[in-house]
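FIELD: query
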Amino acid sequence: MVLDEYHERSPHPDVALALSRQALSAHEYLALVVMSAALEVAPLAAFLGGCPVVEIAARSHPVSVEHPPEVSLAAAAVGVADEWGRLVMASSGEGDLIVDRARWQEYFDGYFVDGCAAMNDHEWFFLLRWEEDDDSDDPLPIRLLFVDARRALSERRFVRGSVNFSAMGVVSAPSSGDFVVVGQDAHAFRYDGSRGSTEVELPAAIPGSDLRAVVHAAGRIGSVAWAAGWPRRVWRRRAPGEWEIVSAGLPAPQHLGASDDIVKAAFSQRFRALAGFDERDVYVGGDEGELWHWDGVAWSRRAIAATTEFTAACAADDRVFLADATGALWVGRDREWSRLTDPAPYPIVDLAWFAGQLWCGHQTGGLDRLEGKRLVASGAPSEASPGLQHLDVAADGSCLLAAGRGGAALYDGRSWRALFGRAAPV
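FIELD: result
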């Protein structure tokens, strides 16, 4: 067994070394060689039971260290990082680096990606959520990360943390040139590429009840941000800080007065799937196969054979795709609907149409694409998967952004590019 370039440290070679040492103790016919040109060998040799060390003489390249006058070490490090970022951009033409490795843990340690949005092929927004769940009823801490890959490395990101914002989704809104983060509690936050601010919350009062509406879905329809939730509530963002209710004609909320019926009401009148072609052609899916259509004037219910809640929706290619809680896909438009695939072992949490294909993100973190009437592996890069369950087609249609617990990746219709993985930037 040979472990080469062992000085390039990460969890993978460390685990490999530990397993190799365990195998050596169990099988005397095995031999292990660990090679490196820049490793401190004494601790490693001791770890391997005082094994022999073989040194091979070779010509070393001359190296000199020079410091610019009157420049602090910190300032010099920032300058080197920026120059590295410019070199990456110049060599690849894409500017792959989101954040230098020195600050990676500061942003991502303990957090995972729980939402994403893309304005184009270089401006992205990620919702990061705290990994640990302490069974508290309080919202988990979140971080909001904006990236512009065309800026200098030191200027290409915006990070904001929050502990009082139950964020559930992020949307790119080209009509106002910003990203919008929407919370379950109807709060909203916007970032326009230069600064962030809290918006006026979505109207959440429920007539005749002390309860407040809850947001369960958010997405872009046309160039505008929309949201949907409980109880049968739909919102449209007219402008930054201007959200309006678009629910006239939907059945009035029921079972909100008696405390015994609150749980039943909370799981029977939710809209969790939202999609549309424009503001006069919108579909929302809810519990028990409930499906509604908005024509710009009024809502009307659509008959569909689904019996469980809808979990995701996508409108594209003159069709509407829906996913239900059994993992089955449905397709149709207006009054004609049919089931496209059989139930699957895992629910689908996000759908996107890009490059002539339907992409499906699963609750377990898998990412598939539809071929005929079956789902096949997406081919996303292993550095960022598994875990790519959140999807967004860029507002300008240039790419598909996928993100989740595994990291994030970008697909331009020809090939995938990993943006970052769980352990470090790619």
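FIELD: remark
Confidence is low (pLDDT under 50) at residues 80-97.
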